[in-house]
Design a protein that fits this description.
about 325 residues; alpha/beta; TIM Barrel; 2 domains; eight-stranded parallel beta sheet; binds ligand TUI
Length: about 325
């Protein structure tokens, strides 16, 4: 399994690990990259000093390329953007906004910029701004989501841009990987599946929630205030949903949400934590080393693709 994106980035398999805030640290990213995929360190809402430590940690563990995800709504986005350029990170992915203001800085530093987009319009804008590829993320994904599903978004983005497209949202095994290639993608990004990588340091309560999840375990809250986020149904999501429907103020919703990601990831706090997860969590059934996940989904996808002669000769 080799696609153009493998040659472009110098990776063995076209499998990216999503840049999950509070979760995707240097340890997870290095393990995925060592396994032949593209590990990605998430800056989330952290200051540049933390991100720098994670980059140095990953470099000690792997000589293979890895990426950095810049969450554009972070108060530290600007200093993290500078850090990415200074460190010459091989790949920069972005989320939750438009990275156009940073793109020249990153490109001058030799970074391949691969923004996450949730629409065709954004994909075209990123192509004009000099992106090396785009990650088309459907609303099956965990965290901040757009409106369009992966099935509908990926082929439309593929038709709209000449860049390589990586499919994300709702993919956790080789069937999803093969389907993404059929839609025109050159690779995949998975987040939820890597929550159960052995090298992922989330709280055991979080991991158990993912392993026990079903197809209907997630919900999107925050549509009303313009920041839709998909997470597991918990006491927190019910309280947030209730506040949203009774017309709670923006401030009240902000107070509810503040620190909720950290409480989930580090404390496993089922009462006040926000456990981000994609709709595909129901497919994640065991904990495995990151490298094994990368190998397994790739082998499964190859089997799927070879099996297509069952229908067409
Ligand atoms: O960014 C994500 N997923 C995330 S970010 C995050 S941290 C956070 N926590 C609480 C509230 C809000 C954020 C948790 N999960 N995925 C990538 C993604 N990007 N999905 C959708 C988009 C997106 C949305 C709008 C990309 C571009 C965009 O452009 C709009 C604009 O600004 O023009």
């Amino acid at each position: 399994m080799q696609t153009e994106i493998c040659r472009l980035l110098g990776i063995r398999y076209p499998v990216f690990q999503g840049g999950m805030a509070w979760i995707a640290d240097g340890r997870l990213a290095a393990a995925v990259s060592e396994g032949g995929g593209l590990g990605i360190i998430a800056a989330g809402n952290a200051p540049a000093s933390y991100v720098e430590e994670q980059i140095h940690f990953a470099r000690k563990r792997t000589e293979k390329p890895f990426g950095l995800n810049v969450m554009l709504r972070s108060p530290f986005a600007d200093e993290v953007a500078d850090l990415a350029a200074r460190e010459g990170v091989r790949v920069v992915t972005t989320g939750a906004g438009n990275p156009a203001a940073f793109m020249d800085r990153w490109r001058r530093a030799g970074c391949a910029v691969i923004p996450v987009v949730a629409s065709v319009a954004m994909a075209k804008l990123m192509e004009r701004a000099g992106a090396a590829a785009v990650i088309a993320e459907g609303c099956e994904s965990g965290g901040h989501v757009g409106e369009t599903t992966t099935m509908a978004l990926v082929p439309q983005v593929c038709d709209a841009v000449r860049l390589p497209v990586i499919a994300a949202g709702g993919i956790a095994d080789g069937r999803g990987f093969a389907a993404a290639l059929m839609l025109g993608a050159q690779g995949i990004q998975m987040g939820t599946r890597f929550l159960c990588a052995g090298e992922c340091t989330i709280h055991p309560v979080y991991r158990e929630k993912i392993l026990r999840a079903t197809d209907r375990s997630t919900i999107v809250t925050g549509r009303r205030n313009g920041h839709p986020v998909r997470s597991l149904r918990t006491a927190f999501s019910r309280r947030y949903e209730e506040a949203e429907y009774r017309g709670a103020s923006e401030t009240e919703l902000d107070v509810l949400g503040t620190g909720a990601l950290r409480l989930a990831v580090q404390e496993g706090d089922l009462e006040s934590g926000c456990f981000l997860s994609g709709q595909i969590a129901g497919l994640v059934k065991r904990v495995q080393p990151a490298a094994e996940i990368v190998e397994e989904v790739t082998r499964e996808a190859e089997q799927c693709l070879k099996g297509t002669s069952r229908w067409v000769r």
